[in-house]
Amino acid sequence: MEYIAFIHKEDNDYVAVVPDLGFTSSYGETFIDAVHYIKEAAELYCEDLKTLPKSSTLEELMQRDDLDLEPGAIPQLIDIKVEKLKRINVMMRSDIVEVLPERLVEFNGNRSAYLQNLVLQDLREHHINL
User: Fold this and answer.
1) Is the pTM here over 0.90, yes or no?
2) Which of 38, 47, 64, 95 is positioned for an S-S bond with 26, CB 3.0–4.6 A?
């Protein structure tokens, strides 16, 4: 999901804030650092949400009464990735389950990660984008 962050220079740092995400903020020594850290902060903010907030357009944000931007604040589009996990029950043939540990080495023994990787691979092969 894409959100707009506003970034401005304050003393020796760049400060970033995302109004659509409860005014989540972060800072960095450089503009690039501020973008990186605000993206990380936004993803952490969204992890516990049941649904992600609607993303506002720049025009909508500029009309908000509660938006008190610093002079010279630069809007920056950030793309955040929040993966909501859902537990499912899976049945498999026992002979598959017995040999599965051999293939799990690259996934640190995590069967869920292995199966998810296979599903994503299949979806890509069938041109299904998530």
Assistant:
1) no
2) 38
